[in-house]
Amino acid sequence: TALSLRHLHARELDLRTANTPPGELDLRHTVLGVLRDDPAVWPARVRLDGALYEQLETPLTAAERIPWLGRDDDAYHPQPYEQLATAYRGLGHEDEARTVLLAKQRARRHQLPRYARVWGLVQDATVGYGYHPARALGWLLGLMVVGFTVFARWHPRELEEGKSPEYSAVFYTLDLLLPVVSFGQDSAYTSDDALGWFAHLLTAAGWVLATTVAAGAARALNRQ
Question: Which chain regions cross the lipid bilayer (predicted)?
């Protein structure tokens, strides 16, 4: 170990050394007021689990600071990410805090079973684990455009001839995409063969999108 400061309690800690220390820096379970460091001399390994600090004086963005957390090659620890997010929130940098918490979820994903990693990738791509909810609207609009284009060109079959509401490619697509809302189109019209498979895919995509939005919203509200 190059430098072990485990369980240290201090008002200030200055790690801006002239050269990069060899080995590792152990800051586990330290309690600090102000931590000063320099990314140019970060050791190859920094152990941070349990470290608490009120302020990081070195002005770095979350994108620049996150690799610091990644220098601990032990198993995934959520606390260093949560502590860094708390530090950014203390400075009023909510966007930076969300970036850190998103990185936390991505790091956690690598520790999960394969099926859970796949679900994590879906949540990441669709809503950024709840930290980028606007993405969901983009996905919805994209699927809406694709669905409208297909169903405007190839119409589904009327279930009861003469008894159905006027067909609308827009509302038929929305009926397939939105799990809860109904415009009465999917109960009056049905798609067969390849068009039917496409309709099922849209419905599945709608459920996946709704589920990821709900899971992401719950996570963001809990600030996990």
Answer: 136-155, 197-218
Instruction: Please state, in angstroms and as integers, the Cα–Cα distance from residue 32 to each residue in 1, 46, 50, 67, following that order.
Output: 20, 16, 11, 21
* Cα gap 96→144, rounded to integer Å: 32
Residue tagged 């790091």 (tokens):
107
- pLDDT tens, residue by residue, 46-72: 999 999 999 998 879 999 999 999 888
Domain boundaries, the chain: 3-111, 134-222
Q: What are phi and psi of 25, to 5 degrees?
A: -115, 120
Which has the closest alpha carbon to 165: 140, 143, 182?
182
Question: 59, 81 in Cβ contact below 8 A?
Answer: no
pTM, to two decimals: 0.76
